[in-house]
Design goal:
Elements (H helix, E strand, L loop, with lengths): L6 H11 L10 H21 L2 E9 L2 E8 L2 E10 H14 L11 E9 L2 E12 L2 E9 L14 H11 L4 E6 L6 H12 L6 E5 L9 E5 L8 H9 L5 E4 L5 H12 L3 E6 L7 H7 L4 H7 E11 L6 E9 L2 H8 L4 H10 L5 H10 L5 H9 L3
Parallel strand pairs: 7-11, 7-12, 8-9, 8-10, 10-11
Antiparallel strand pairs: 1-2, 1-6, 2-3, 4-5, 5-6, 12-13
């Protein structure tokens, strides 16, 4: 029986069979079998490594393929010739049902991939770089199955978070950069709430996970369905809980606040570095202070750190509820430093403090806390 080809052997075949002919004509059919198998091998390796993303990036006449594992990029293959990279991108576009002829504009799609009898969702974004077309594949592998108790909250933070998500109305906002686990945390909150007696809706761009008992809306800006218009339509369906993938404009922010004031439970994310920055950001987007003070129930922020034992990541968080003192700060348009100081006075544990506590428990290293929060300083 012929032994299965290794990834290096497949890559060598891809390189050979995607070389331009002397006439300058590239025979795509000749190269597709090793390309298909090589892309599958790349996806299998990424899933087995628990990678969150795959980056296919052109550099001059060659390309790199890198995978993000535990928040850090690692090289899967370097010096891939441009023709082979084009074949990789073409295969991925076919899998995601994207236009293989469009190379000048960014495209977005998704597909399901079978790995060890599991169906894994893969999100695809193509980017027209100067050196050629590249792609980023995001692997959505099971994060939605986590419970709140699996998220690494300290005891105090867990009690406060559970209290906030179980409030019958009001707005809970979660801060953090891209790839800090915000969506996973919000889905864990929805999992705690989902039952036959509640109507729960998410509005996302696009939905990252699928959950039984939760209705999902995908934003489609080309069709005129942005976050704000989707939220207005969803609210007419009278849901109990709405999760908005992101608040990044004034119209969405104002609509979400009004929904929270009407007695609905609203969860969303805001791109700020710290929990204390969420209130000033909402005010900057044009939300009236008296409305925000009445609607906002709590704010959290988080980062993901590599575990000390070298496999997987754990979150560090900071979280505060909105009490009378915080409402006065909102009404007075206090800045981020004042809000952080007030939150700490009222018991908030900062992400740095939470990280150092986890370092003392041996869950992470102090160096990892500094790397994530301060860039390794």
């Amino acid at each position: 029986m012929k032994e299965a080809e290794s990834v290096d052997e497949l890559l060598a075949r891809v390189v050979r069979e995607t070389k331009p002919r002397s006439q300058g004509i590239h025979d795509v059919k000749l190269s597709m079998d090793p390309v298909v198998r090589c892309v599958d091998a790349m996806l299998d390796d990424a899933i087995d490594m628990h990678a969150s993303d795959i980056h296919i990036e052109p550099y001059g006449e060659q390309a790199w393929i890198r995978m993000r594992v535990d928040g850090c990029l690692t090289v899967w293959h370097r010096e891939l010739p441009r023709e082979a990279m084009r074949a990789f991108i073409a295969r991925i576009k076919v899998m995601a049902r994207l236009d293989t002829t469009e190379k000048r504009l960014p495209l977005a799609g998704r597909f399901s991939y079978e790995n060890h009898d599991r169906s894994i969702d893969i999100r695809v974004e193509t980017v027209p770089f100067l050196g050629g077309e590249g792609a980023v594949l995001r692997i959505l592998d099971g994060g939605s199955g986590l419970a709140v108790s699996d998220l690494g909250f300290s005891r105090r933070n867990l009690e406060l978070f559970m209290k906030l998500i179980n409030k019958p109305g009001g707005m809970l906002l979660l801060a953090g950069p891209t790839n800090s686990g915000k969506t996973t945390t919000l889905y864990a909150a929805l999992r705690e709430l989902a039952d036959d007696e509640r109507s729960i809706v998410t509005i996302e761009d696009p939905p990252e996970y699928h959950m039984k008992g939760v209705s999902q809306v995908q934003v489609d800006r080309k069709a005129g369905l942005d976050f704000a218009s989707a939220l207005k339509a969803v609210l007419r369906a009278d849901p109990d809980t709405v999760m908005i993938g992101e608040i990044r404009d004034g119209e969405t922010a104002k609509t979400a606040v009004r929904a929270a004031l009407s007695g609905r439970r609203i969860f969303s994310t805001v791109h700020t570095g710290r929990a204390a920055g969420v209130i000033p950001r909402m005010l900057e987007m044009g939300v009236a202070p008296y409305l925000l003070a009445s609607a906002l129930s709590g704010v959290a922020a988080q980062r993901l750190l590599r575990r000390a034992e070298g496999r997987g990541r754990i979150a560090i968080q900071e979280i505060y509820g909105v009490d009378d003192d915080m409402r006065r700060a909102i009404l007075d348009r206090r800045d981020e430093s004042y809000i952080e100081e007030l939150a700490e006075q009222n018991g908030m544990q900062t992400m740095q403090s939470d990280g150092m506590d986890k370092a003392a428990q041996g869950l992470v290293t102090k160096q990892e806390v500094k790397r994530v929060l301060y860039g390794g300083i």
